[in-house]
Amino acid sequence: MSELIAFQQPDQAVIERRPAIIADLAELLPEGCLITEERELVPFDTDAFVSYRRMPLAVVLPETTAQVAAVLKYCNDNAIPVIPRGAGTSLSGGAIPQEDAVVIGVSKMNRILEVDLPNRAAIVQAGVTNISISQAVDADGFFYAPDPSSQLACTIGGNIGMNSGGAHCLKYGVTTNNLMGVKMVMFDGSIVEIGGKALDAAGYDLLGLICGSEGQLGIVTEATVRLIAKPEGARPVLFGFESSVAAGACVTDIIGAGIIPVAIEFMDKPAIEICEAFAQAGYPMDVEALLIVEVEGSEAEMDAMLERIIEIARKHGVKTIKESQSATEAALIWKGRKSAFGATGRIADYICMDGTVPLGQLSHVLEKTSEIIDRYGLRVANVFHAGDGNMHPLILFDANDPEESLKAEMAGNDILKLCVDAGGCLTGEHGVGIEKRDLMRHQYSDVDLAQQMRVRAAFDPKWILNPSKVFPLDGRNGSQPGNQTVPETGKTAA
Amino acid sequence: MSELIAFQQPDQAVIERRPAIIADLAELLPEGCLITEERELVPFDTDAFVSYRRMPLAVVLPETTAQVAAVLKYCNDNAIPVIPRGAGTSLSGGAIPQEDAVVIGVSKMNRILEVDLPNRAAIVQAGVTNISISQAVDADGFFYAPDPSSQLACTIGGNIGMNSGGAHCLKYGVTTNNLMGVKMVMFDGSIVEIGGKALDAAGYDLLGLICGSEGQLGIVTEATVRLIAKPEGARPVLFGFESSVAAGACVTDIIGAGIIPVAIEFMDKPAIEICEAFAQAGYPMDVEALLIVEVEGSEAEMDAMLERIIEIARKHGVKTIKESQSATEAALIWKGRKSAFGATGRIADYICMDGTVPLGQLSHVLEKTSEIIDRYGLRVANVFHAGDGNMHPLILFDANDPEESLKAEMAGNDILKLCVDAGGCLTGEHGVGIEKRDLMRHQYSDVDLAQQMRVRAAFDPKWILNPSKVFPLDGRNGSQPGNQTVPETGKTAA
Predict the structure, then answer these.
(1) How far is B226 from chain A (nearest CA, A)?
(2) Interface check B193 vs A, CB under 8 A
(3) Mind telling me which PANTHER family this protein's record contains (chains A, B) (predicted)?
């Protein structure tokens, strides 16, 4: 990968104190919770964004909230950067460490503490995987709705950090809509509980603020999540179109008519070919774009909703309509879709963008994306959550070719700027992380960014929590960790 | 009313500068936007909480965001408290002014700026009434979901300030779930735009933080709200029970089974009698408690959901089941429920509590509420949003009897503490305002409150925005406006 994204210089003073810091951390933790050997640190030197690797000072894997608190207080007292880490599945580099940092991983805090069906809630530790919540309540007829493609591996802690989504979030909302409360360790080791099993909370909505704050406002150790009753039935249906523009316009019209299926996923021709070759999902190969529309409920409800959707699809010249005929067929359709990233990785290097646009802009943005990719002489596969306008162009390139790598990153930046200019935003579910940090200036004015940084400073006065992420390093924010000059209140530029 | 709630002493220095301040404000505003005559200020000296009255220094009614910005910057520069005001329908005293304050009302900013059906969004000014959004899109088959009982009068600006709910929020969520973006004036007159028509936003979720922040983080002047397609049909059904405990347990079991109707409203015997006498809604009079359960969708969908609900109700010994047979009958059922507060006001003085509890605690809290009311020798009518655990005990008393007034306030406090102790919270939709400010200590630890106050200080460093609300005045927060000592970061008590 090229180094379009400038990395912070580590604080040499912290690195030189390494033996003392390790000795201190060892005092705070039980046996087996501290990793300091270089070969054992390797699995923690990057995340699923992969483009950058940095070896942290140490990795701690606490077993309790109290241990997280002890380590975080120690790091804050000693101005040591801290990188919170779930399963390391971030696609925006949210969990990439830096050389002077201590990684706090939640992988040992992986117990479901309580399932409370009368209140439709579960209390889980932050290291619990996304899928295991649904598995724990499946027999009782419930599930946890947000379903990132990485749901077998990714943790609830990471989901909260990035406000993760998934294919079925069109109907049920993303993480923030399914999170009822958290237990969180603050920068100074104090422990707060926000929200809980009751609707709403008095005072400010700190729960919403924490969700999606990318580990910069504290470290979540427990979460109370909403459980939802499984529908009577669910049926994914394939709609094939002769152009991406027609498929995009069809999505706009379905949602514009006020119809909200469980999911509307979009795949263009390259994505169909890649996924079909991998999963033999039965996708039609003679179309230019495919929508997977899932409806759910009773047979009568599904039929009624499908009837309205088919009518709209016909107006956009739908070429193929194929309903899944069995649970096996339905599972195969989703397997194809959910393996899109993995299947693409088998044929080329790729970077996955995560822009979100107002639905009325879908066709326009698809067309312009095509133009951008052509201009750089690259290839793209589009496979994304169309129902909520969350686009995922996968830009294919050869990582061994530095020039092509640079072109891929530049094309990605152009596409994200296009999304912002169309009234959308830089990210739908992957977060800003390190990847989109410098593009925040395209999305936000100085006034906006200054306000976000003031909020951050109210939670993390020394900027030790995931310090190189989310905000641009250049200009007023300094170029060194700890040097970010937070604008004082009252002095923001207009 | 007794004065259980201590009022801040106004800043005499500000009051003495009154003529100069009025002259300065006149410079910033066009003709007809500044109110300073005492008799014209009277309508602004309280809100629907009514218990307290204070005459503000002046009321400004700007016509544009730029005028709001000019006034807010002036007040911040001169350390003058500012009270943002929608329609003054707050039930927690959120819009009650203080003698040294300038009220900024949004009533002249009452235009719907854009209806964008393909993106299911409307952009409205903050002074638009809640109902007028639904009216504007009704013919197109859409509506705006949150429906406070005051929806004919209350403004979107006020709804955002208090994160307002309503009977139909069980299915569709409260204001924060239906708000997509805001234009907001910051303390220093800078103008920010947060969110918009696309899903999610990069960086922190400031939109969620703003919603429900009771006018303390800025003044919202425009909002982008979500539009929802009207259902094919809707049918309220009355379920009569022999006890409040049975009705409460029935609600717990409906929601615990994962069934989410549009609304589940609860009325006890006194509430039924009061509402029926006022609205002749056809409520059964031979039961101790009534649930209004509304289902929606096609006839088949409604029948299917009702069948499951009736089965659960039978387990709890339901005595009467009555389905509305026509649109007129349905409207009458809702008229009875929505007039509960007004109808109660005709027979007695009352204060309305707004605690929220986990659903599994409904019956327990109803029983304990009864005990508290008996202990004080008062009467209570319970009429509330049972489906999301948002309780509204109306405590009846004689406002001309100082002892009974005090008892009513003390009983109210005991009930809210009961809600918190049951795992719930002080407010579901009315906000903390001035009413529940001192009870925040029962809900939150010092660490929690300190963190909320640090967030506030990041948005309003001089504490000029709605300064006497939300946070307790006593102890570490000082007892004078402007004297609140925000805990410095790093020094919170454990």
Answers:
(1) 11
(2) yes
(3) GLYCOLATE OXIDASE SUBUNIT GLCD
